[in-house]
Amino acid sequence: MKKSLIVAALFSIGIAVGQQKPISAPLVKHIYTADPSAHVFNGKIYIYPSHDIDAGIPQSEAGDHFAMKDFHILSMDAIDGKVTDHGVALDVKDIPWAGRQLWAPDAAYKNGTYYLYFPLKDKEDIFRIGVATSKSPTGPFKAEKEPIKGSYSIDPAVFKDTDGSYYMYFGGISGGQLQRWNNNNYNANGKLKTKTEEAVLPKMARLKGNMLEFEEAPKDIRILDENGRGFLEGDNNKRFFEAAWVHKYKGKYYFSYSTGDTHLISYAVGDNPYGPFTYKGVVLNPVKGWTTHHSIVEFKGKWYLFYHDVEISGKTHLRNIKVTELRHLPDGSIETISPYK
Ligand code: FUB
Q: Which fold has domain 3-326?
């Protein structure tokens, strides 16, 4: 076996290479959590994570082993303060259109109502995005009867712009099924691109005022290199895989995402919420475990990266969320974070 393959194998099963120490500790240890979408509501931090469980389902390329069944919402008054688990906020058995697998959620607030957005396979085993509402940021949430019309794939991230508009960014290739969608049409046989083909692009749509529907048909998000060219599938250290997130800093829109099989959280910057976004670099170097997924949020004048690794379990489907400070440098770039030192 080549040295690089041995390192990759050790890495994927969660063995620290070179005895490095994590820069942050798991935020909770009593349950497994992943994909942390953090928001500040009423001066407090609320985290909307996936709730990982060991369902005993063998690992597969399609991600069957990520067989999550409910969501717990966490809150904290301070970054290094006590973390409260508010219990089950939504259970898959209470979602009328549910098939299986509650993956990475996000949340938003508007006019007295909190909205929980989540990916879930429907009864035909096709990932759709659902929405549930509550008067409390911690739920319980009540799911709508149907998924959001025109929605598909995984990893919804809802961004509120400074003008009060809300946009949903979403999509994920491979187990997230984005390769099966072309111009918003489903093709059950849609294959992953080959190395020399253009990479599959993430999607976005503006939300209607009711926060329950898309205002427009989902559009491609273009991520370009410094010469204005899009990435090929072979550019897998830069092209989009899953885990979209958008934050705004000094008037610019930062689109960050996971590169999947190269395990990076990368980012690209644009002048408006629709992009295009120009690739700028890496937010987070690889964590232990196959997946990487994050959110970026401002709290009391500082910026934070919420992310996960597999420090507690060493197993790729049993993750734990963490937080660390994130710095924007004077030129607008983000200082790359290494999760182990
Ligand atoms: O948690 C299940 C999936 O793993 C998420 O939807 C992806 O982003 C990856 O973190």
A: Tachylectin-2; Chain A (2.115.10)
